[in-house]
Q: What sequence folds into this?
């Protein structure tokens, strides 16, 4: 019997390579809480960990959808067009995520008339610890359960998937307006949301 022929890596289809690279990155990385400033993809460096995009240079944000962490329904960022959208990437296993959770909860309550928060829970192979995390911090907003990170693939050019926690703020026109790599404070997030809601 002839052995199965394996194609060289360079001949693999692009989608397979993308998924493979994502899996490798997720396996090799841990919680990221470093301060990152970058000018790529239209982001302009500001205070440590925070980048903002001038309204004239913003691009449409990809739509993120997936199974809700609370079983029985699906979530989509497309359902909240017209509000400032705060997309927070977190994991129950991540100490910096636990550190920022109370700030996210406070910011979501202070801006409930202006913004919609959605979490994206990644790398929790079992939803039970993630649901326990939500209960422990009394998180009032929904989360997408995305254990393998595939829901975030459209953000690969804007959101380092090895950096967790991470937060994107999307303006009322559905464009990426700001990004925070690492933990975020209530004060910073509320100010960002208010500025973006006011067209800044």
A:
């Amino acid at each position: 019997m002839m052995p199965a022929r394996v194609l060289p890596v360079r001949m693999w289809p692009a989608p397979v390579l993308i998924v493979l690279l994502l899996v490798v990155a997720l396996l090799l990385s841990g919680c990221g809480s470093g301060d990152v400033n970058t000018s790529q993809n239209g982001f302009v460096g500001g205070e440590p960990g925070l980048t903002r995009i001038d309204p004239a240079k913003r691009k449409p944000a990809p739509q993120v959808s997936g199974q809700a962490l609370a079983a029985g329904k699906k979530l989509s960022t497309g359902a909240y067009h017209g509000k400032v959208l705060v997309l927070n990437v977190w994991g129950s296993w991540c100490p910096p995520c636990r550190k920022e959770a109370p700030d996210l909860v406070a910011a979501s309550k202070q801006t409930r008339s202006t913004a919609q928060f959605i979490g994206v829970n990644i790398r929790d192979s079992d939803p039970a610890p993630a649901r326990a995390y939500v209960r422990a911090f009394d998180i009032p907003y929904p989360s997408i359960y995305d254990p393998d990170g595939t829901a975030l693939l459209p953000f690969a050019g804007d959101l380092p998937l090895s950096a967790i926690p991470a937060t994107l703020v999307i303006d009322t026109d559905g464009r990426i307006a700001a990004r925070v790599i690492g933990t975020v404070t209530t004060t910073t997030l509320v100010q960002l949301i208010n500025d973006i809601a006011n067209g800044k």
